Amino acid sequence: MAAIIELTSASSNLEAYLTSWTSGFQTSYGAFWDEGAGLVTNPVAGTTYEQWGNGTAGSKGIYLEGEVQYARGNLTGTVDTITLGSGFSQSNASGFSVSAELVITPDSTIPGAGQDSFDWAIYDLTVNGSLSSFYDYLGEVGTVIEDTTASNVLVGFSGADTFVFSGGVDTVKAGPAGTYGYQDGTDTLDVSAWGASSVDDIYWYDDTDGYAVIGSVTDASVGITLVGVSSSVLDVSDFIFAPALAA
Fold this sequence. Notes:
Blueprint: E1 3-7, H1 14-24, E2 31-34, E3 38-40, E4 49-55, E5 61-71, E6 74-91, E7 95-105, H2 117-128, H3 132-141, E8 143-146, E9 153-154, E10 161-164, E11 169-172, E12 188-190, E13 202-206, E14 212-216, E15 223-226, E16 239-240
Parallel strand pairs: 1-8, 8-10, 9-11, 10-12, 11-15, 12-16
Antiparallel strand pairs: 1-7, 2-3, 2-4, 4-5, 5-6, 6-7, 13-14, 14-15
C-alpha cells in the first residue's frame, strides 16, 4: 500500500508549500504523548504512545497519530496519520495539534521491526529540521497524491506516484531537492474523476515550451501540464480511467 497524500487549500501548490513549511519549521526535538503519561521526552522502551510531535508553539509543526513504541532509534508499531501544518501546540492533557495543511496516511508496512526509512525520516526532521529523508521514505513506498478541486501544483517522489486529479488545471513538476516531476513508465495519472473512461475522452499535445498538456474532450475546466515531459512519450498505460458504464 502506498502512502496517501491529501492536499488542502493551504498546500495546493505543493512545491511552494514544502519549501515554505521547511523554511518556517524549527525543531524542538519532539516528544511522545499518551493519555496516561502526558508529554514524554524520554520514551520508555516497550511503552505504547498515541502521538509524536515536533514544532514551535504557534508556528510550523508536525505530529503523527497511531500506536507506536520507540527504542534506540527505532520506531515500531502503527502510524495512522501524519499531519503537517501551522499553529503548533502541545499539552499534557490533549497532546499535539496543528491547523492541518497536509495530511499523509502512511504505507502500512513501515515502520517495521528494524531501522528503516521512516526512522531516518523522523531522525532527519528531529535533528536537522529537514524533510529530505521524508522524501526518501515516500519514494521508497510510493504515493497516491490527491489534489484539490482547485488548480494545483503537484510534485512527486523517486518511486511510483499516482497523481489523482479531481478538478482545476494542474501542473506536475519537480520541487525541492528530493522531489520529482512526472516519471514516464513509473508514475500514473488518474483522470477518472473527470469522467474519462478511455483515451477517447482525453487528448494531449505539447505546449510552446515542449511540455505535455492533457485535457478533457468534454470539460474545458480541467487539465494537466507535465513540466519537462514531452507528449510523445504518453500512451494509454500512463492513465487510470473511470470504469466504462454498462450499455
